[in-house]
Amino acid sequence: MSPTPSARRLRLGLPRRVFSQVLLMQVAIAAGVAVLATGLFLAPLGDQLDDQAMRRALAIAQTTAEQPQIARDLQNTPPTPKGPVQREAERIRKATHAEYVVVMDRRGVRWSHTDPQRIGGHVSTDPGRALAGKEVMEIDSGTLGRSARGKVPLRDSHGDIIGAVSVGIAYDSVRARLLHAIPGLFAYAGGALAVGALAAWLISRRVQRQTRDLAFSDIAALLAEREAMLHSIREGVVALDRTGRIRLLNDEAQRLLDLDDGVVGRTPDEALGEGRTADVLAGRVTGTDLLTVRGQRVLVANRMPTDDGGAVATLRDRTELEQLGRELDSTRGLIDALRAQDHEHANRMHTLLGLLELEMYDDAVEFVGEVVGDHRATAEQVTEKIQDPLLAALLVGKATVAAERGVALWVSDRTRLPDRLVDPRGLVTIVGNLVDNALDAVAGTLHARVEVELRAEGRTAILTVRDTGPGIPVEHRELVFTEGWSTKKPPAHRERGIGLSLVRRLAERQGGTATVGEADGGGAQFTVVLPEALAEPAPAPALSVPSAPQSAKEESQ
Question: Could you tell me which residues belong to the region Disordered (predicted)?
Answer without folding.
Answer: 538-557
